[in-house]
Write a sequence for this structure.
RNA sequence: GGAGAUGUAGCGAAGCUGGCCGUAACGCGCCGCACUCGAAAUGCGGUUGUCCAGAAAUGGGCACGUGGGUUCGAAUCCCACCGUCUCCGCCA
């Protein structure tokens, strides 16, 4: 949600900023409607004030035995005008809100306009592994070593699911343990949220109403509407933890992390090169989240990027960090860094973490505020989130980057303590 | 799933035979001041959010879980929904 005052006062600025995201908008109708709406509010509220005054007079006149009939007649008249005014205002509010809800966040000053093609690699860690043999695809390696059972996954959940087995399941759990341990060390509070969330949660996060079709919805008995859905990321839960609250400034920043599977429809997005666990309907992820004062956002984003990077780096994987152009940031976000790990079989880098600053966009939607110590007035907090990390790309990266000529796979040092001390995945 | 209770400020709680009740009794907490060498105790004062108009001072509207209804007038009466609690049933 953008600040309506900003649109009123600098519509051309907002239009130009949104254009950087590839979002074309014309505010002329909106502004006209806004002026009309405020005029109606002004007129209707004046009548309401008269109504309140008159209403207070009636019992007094009655007490002194005077005739209240003329006042009652006037009240009837006022009430009709108020009712009609309120109806018009309510309609305009609905229209205006729908318009505002659809507007994406403005990009930060330092974010380049345009789409993917303008993403910038800002950091590269490690080197692409060079193999003295023909490297195998993670699907083949995982099946040979019995780590992942794709056939059973399809039997159980349909296309786009898999089953972790034996050392595969243990490796997955080791990754999660490793991430959790690191976040606890850094003082983040661990959260295990519900996986089913209410519609309002999706709204606050900025996913609804526009992207409601991307999630698995739980239909009501009428088969039409839905009021709950299965979360596509723990961010959706964490951003709602303090919805409708006024936090005290000295509580901030609040730092959380949550583990949940992420459930996504991914309708129509299958591509041949994404076979394996690159893009499934369910994957495990640990999500970091911060609520901060507006002035703390830059530092917080840097912290999240650094934390996510360190996790990948300490696994020994080759990866890069990209700063996304405005159009590649998701709707709610003003600035995003992606951490992308090298997947040899794809000859490409795939996102394992997306670290984003939402500014006050989500806080406005969720009415999440803090009390400013100086002015004592409430203001909107800023929210930031970053994966830390999603396993479904890290897992294949480990399998592929650390494969040996003899088919064995080296287990990263940091994971070994959760793998019973073994150093190799082998048949 | 069945029965009952309940939802009022940061917390507890009164009001619920409709107008004198919404900044909202009373208590706790918090802030300021006084007393004090300092503190405790005590005393006095303050302490919701949002929207509209206005340069501002200020004036006004709205909000008693949410949404409707009755009424000149609703925290109060009626209806629906949501949350919480207790008991019963079922169940990992």
């Amino acid at each position: 949600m953008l600040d309506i005052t900003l649109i009123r006062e600098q519509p051309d600025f907002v239009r130009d900023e949104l254009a950087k995201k590839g979002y074309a908008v014309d505010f002329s109708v909106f502004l006209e409607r806004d002026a009309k709406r405020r005029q109606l509010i002004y007129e209707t509220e004046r009548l309401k004030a008269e109504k309140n005054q008159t209403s207070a007079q009636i019992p007094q006149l009655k007490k002194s035995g005077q005739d209240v009939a003329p006042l009652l007649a006037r009240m009837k008249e006022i009430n009709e005008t108020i009712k009609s005014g309120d109806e018009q205002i309510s309609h305009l509010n609905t229209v205006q809100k729908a318009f505002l809800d659809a507007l994406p966040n403005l990009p930060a000053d330092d974010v380049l306009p345009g789409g993917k093609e303008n993403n910038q690699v800002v950091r590269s860690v490690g080197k692409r592994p060079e193999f003295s043999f023909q490297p195998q695809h993670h699907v083949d390696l995982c099946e040979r070593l019995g780590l992942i059972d794709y056939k059973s996954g399809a039997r159980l959940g349909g296309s786009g699911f898999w089953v972790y087995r034996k050392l595969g399941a243990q490796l997955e759990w080791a990754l999660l343990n490793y991430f959790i341990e690191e976040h606890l060390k850094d003082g983040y509070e661990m959260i295990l949220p519900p996986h089913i969330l209410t519609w309002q949660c999706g709204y606050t996060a900025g996913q609804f109403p526009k992207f409601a079709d991307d999630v698995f919805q739980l239909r009501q008995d009428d088969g039409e509407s839905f009021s709950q859905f299965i979360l596509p990321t723990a961010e959706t839960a964490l951003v709602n933890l303090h919805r409708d609250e006024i936090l005290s400034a000295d509580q901030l920043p609040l730092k959380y992390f949550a583990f949940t599977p992420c459930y996504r429809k991914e309708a129509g997005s299958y591509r041949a090169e994404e076979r394996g666990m690159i893009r499934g309907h369910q994957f495990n992820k640990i999500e970091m989240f911060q609520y901060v004062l507006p002035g703390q956002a830059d530092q917080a984003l840097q912290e999240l990027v650094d934390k996510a990077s360190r996790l990948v780096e300490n696994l020994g994987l080759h990866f890069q960090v990209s700063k996304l152009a405005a159009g590649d940031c998701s709707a709610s976000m003003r600035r995003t860094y992606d951490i992308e790990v090298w997947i040899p079989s794809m000859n490409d880098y795939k996102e394992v973490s997306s670290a984003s600053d939402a500014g006050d966009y989500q806080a406005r939607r969720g009415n999440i505020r803090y009390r400013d110590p100086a002015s004592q007035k409430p203001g909107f907090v800023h929210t930031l989130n970053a994966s830390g990390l999603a396993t479904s790309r890290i897992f294949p990266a480990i399998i592929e980057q650390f494969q040996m000529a003899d088919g064995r796979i080296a287990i990263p040092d940091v994971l070994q303590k959760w793998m019973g001390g073994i150093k190799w995945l082998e048949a």
